[in-house]
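Check this:
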Amino acid sequence: IPSILSAQSREMGVMFGFSGYKGDLNEKMYNTKLIRPAFGIQYRRCYSNHWSFRAGLSLIKIKGDDALSKDTFQLNRNLMFKSNIIEFHMGYEFNFFPYQVANPGTFFTPYLFGGIAVYHFNPKAELDGEWYALQPLRTEGQGTQSQPDRKPYSRTSISLPFGGGFKFSVNRRLGVQIETGVRRTYTDYLDDVSTTYADPVQIRTEYGKIAGQLSDRSLLKPSKGNIGRQRGNSTDRDWYYFTGIQINYTLSKKYIDSCS
């Protein structure tokens, strides 16, 4: 067993590309108007030509803006946000063809990956030239006297990343992979929008004038206000993604060819 473990090739890679999200402020997974840059580093340990373990750290940027929609409801809602997501992920890759950067007898392969991630996000919105973190402002009345059962959401959560791509080797030291992966989250608050409008007066009283303004930015309000009306869709969890190119460097040229 020790000799097998020492023969497993190891790689370190850097990844750069673009990212985005799907949620209440953007109903399409890939919206060219809302893509933002993303970066990451990744470690890989190849158990064989087909299986490897991966772990990495990524900075993923996302944003959404009702003003870019063609939907009348969204245009009137008039909400927007941006957020940086810091993600630590780990999981496994499966190569359809035999492949390791360190193995001179392998050259390219399509692949799939899946795993689990822990991430931190912090949605912010702009008002009069200033950006404000939204979670502390309780924009849907979380924890206010009028919404005591609506709890504040956590800005740290888990997601399930999965996807695939294509790998090819340049030489025994360098490899390139093109990858796209989506993350299935367990929150509906990546964009700070999920349920119904709360009482803006109550929010302003407990959390300040800015909180009250950012809770309801609709352009046309009904005579009795928006309290209790739809603000978001709580039945549909948010997603985010990272698509890009990764450059891998072989830390160890040792590899197992018999487990191909």
Strands lie at 10-22, 36-46, 51-65, 80-95, 108-120, 124-127, 130-133, 156-169, 174-185, 239-252. Helices lie at 2-6, 72-77, 200-207, 209-215. The radius of gyration is 22 Å. Residues 125 and 204 are 17 Å apart (CA to CA).
